[in-house]
Amino acid sequence: MAPSPLLMAFVLAAALLRVAAALPCRSSCGEVQIDYPFGIDDGCGTPQLRGWLSCNGTSGLFLQTPSGAYKVESIDYQKQRVMVYDPSMSTCSILQPHHDFVMSDVQYAVMPPADDTVFALLNCSIDSPVLNHYRYLCFNDVAGHSCNELYGACNAFRLFHMSSNTTAPACCFTRYSTVRFMSMNMLDCTHYTTVVGAAGEGLRSIGPTDWVYGIGLSYAVPPGLGCERCKKSGGACGFDTDSGAEMCLCSSTMNATRECAAGSVMDGGERTAPVILLHGFVMALCCLLFNFMS
Ligand SMILES: *[C@@H]1O[C@H](CO)[C@@H](O)[C@H](O)[C@H]1NC(C)=O
Ligand SMILES: *[C@@H]1O[C@H](CO)[C@@H](O)[C@H](O)[C@H]1NC(C)=O
Ligand SMILES: *[C@@H]1O[C@H](CO)[C@@H](O)[C@H](O)[C@H]1NC(C)=O
Ligand SMILES: *[C@@H]1O[C@H](CO)[C@@H](O)[C@H](O)[C@H]1NC(C)=O
């Protein structure tokens, strides 16, 4: 007796359904690749960074901190660096009221701004702590570029020059720790901007109009204990959303503690295609046998 068309259809549908059950973790948001230790779906990545990143449709990837949502422009997994950009910050071409960049204690511990990100505090009053008691927190220049050059070269900052008829208002190049421990109000500077890549010689030959404005964050997250093994088996490294325990996510219908069993990963990739075929084949065989015997 031949297998009924109905049964064959069932087998096909079952195989297709398994293909549709993709891995539960998205691996990109817009242009930015999402990989361990990060995750944009709850339960993906490491529980340490849970809820930090969110993918907002076409607007892209955002880092959530106590002071707001910051656009994540790129993540370099080799250098362990995240580039964020605060759209409400001043740059060489736009002057915007200051808005403190606040990170939680955990964020600051795990992913602090990199040493080559310099905060330029602008238009500081003569009473500012960084011009008095804390003046040692400022450095005079960024790769040979002075505050005065910033005021002169940037359309956005020329205004400061014009509002004072003697010398340019004071400014201070400093690190994030200064801004973190004294808010902008305490610092008594009306504006700030941040420049990345200020450590090497990279900025020496280019003027402020061509600098890259943003914040580079350096993260240090211990590699997940079994993450490599999980990835090798085709899973995504994640955690139990209730207990926070690390887990290997194999498909939306299956989680494993360490690694995915052969055939449990249904991400539709090349590697798993033969498994799906085999699966379908075995099912078809069973149906045939079943039909044959009845
Ligand atoms: C996400 O997108 C929605 C609408 O597309 C918008 O209202 C919201 O402000 C966005 N959130 C962020 C953090 O940009
Ligand atoms: C610069 O700072 C002074 C106070 O120190 C303030 O009155 C002035 O408006 C600021 N300039 C700009 C362009 O915001
Ligand atoms: C500079 O400005 C002050 C007031 O802000 C004014 O009294 C003084 O005459 C000005 N000096 C010059 C040289 O324009
Ligand atoms: C697998 O783990 C993820 C993340 O904790 C969870 O959302 C999902 O419901 C789990 N699935 C199963 C089948 O347990």
UniProtKB/TrEMBL annotation:
Keywords: Membrane, Signal, Transmembrane, Transmembrane helix. InterPro entries: WAK_GUB. GO terms for cellular component: membrane. One of its GO terms (molecular function) is polysaccharide binding. It is a single-pass membrane protein. It is found in: Membrane. Its main location: membrane. This is Uncharacterized protein.
